[in-house]
Amino acid sequence: MRLYSLSVLFRGEPRVRLLKAAYDVSTFNFFQRASVQEFMTFTSQLIVERSELGSRASVKEQEYLCHVYVRNDGLAGVVIADNEYPQRVCFTLLDKVLDEFSREVSKMDWASGSPATISYAALDGYLSKYQV
């Protein structure tokens, strides 16, 4: 059971914006890591774009299970895990991360933010803490 990615995004107009992300691609071949990380970023953005505000869903993509939670204010979180990782734990993690993120990062920064400009360092810690 593994977590591969934990992302915080904003579903705004005209597109979905990645605000912060953490990845664990250590189980992949060194030469595949960059493309796997790019795939996870793209998939996360696509799933948030296609999800309704205020919704939760689990989507199977290749051998991964992507858990998405889009809040009514447009803030969204995506966890990409293997098929064995418990769904309930993923949604508990997303609730915790999005609540903390919304307290620490100003809502005014969501629409224009990027991973380079948003200062929120807890994602890597959560990703390693929730590894099984």
Give a brief rundown of this model.
The chain has 132 residues and is an alpha+beta fold. The chain is built from three helices and five strands, in the order E-E-H-E-E-E-H-H.
Write the layout of secondary structure elements.
Layout: E1 3-11, E2 16-23, H1 33-50, E3 55-61, E4 64-70, E5 75-82, H2 87-104, H3 122-129
Antiparallel strand pairs: 1-2, 1-5, 3-4, 4-5
Account of the 3D structure:
The protein has one domain: Beta-Lactamase (2-Layer Sandwich), CATH 3.30.450. Helix content is 33%, strand content 30%. It has helices at 33-50, 87-104, 122-129, and strands at residues 3-11, 16-23, 55-61, 64-70, 75-82. It has a 5-stranded antiparallel β-sheet with strand order 2-1-5-4-3, with helices on both faces. A hairpin with a 2-residue loop joins strand 3 and strand 4. The longest helix is centred in the N-terminal third of the chain and has 18 residues, at 33-50. This is YKT6B protein. It is a lipid-anchor. Its main location: membrane.
CATH class identity:
Alpha Beta
What is the CATH-assigned architecture? 2-Layer Sandwich
Strand order of the largest sheet: 2-1-5-4-3
Uncertain parts: none
Order of helices and strands: EEHEEEHH
Helix content: 25-40%
Q: CATH H level: which superfamily?
A: Longin domain
The Cα radius of gyration reads 14 Å
Query: Mean pLDDT, rounded to whole units?
Result: 94
In whole angstroms, the N-to-C terminal distance is 6 Å
Instruction: Describe the global form.
Output: globular
The tally of strands reads: 5
InterPro entries: Longin-like_dom_sf (IPR011012), Longin_dom (IPR010908)
Domain Longin: 8-127
Subcellular location: Endomembrane system
Membrane topology: Lipid-anchor
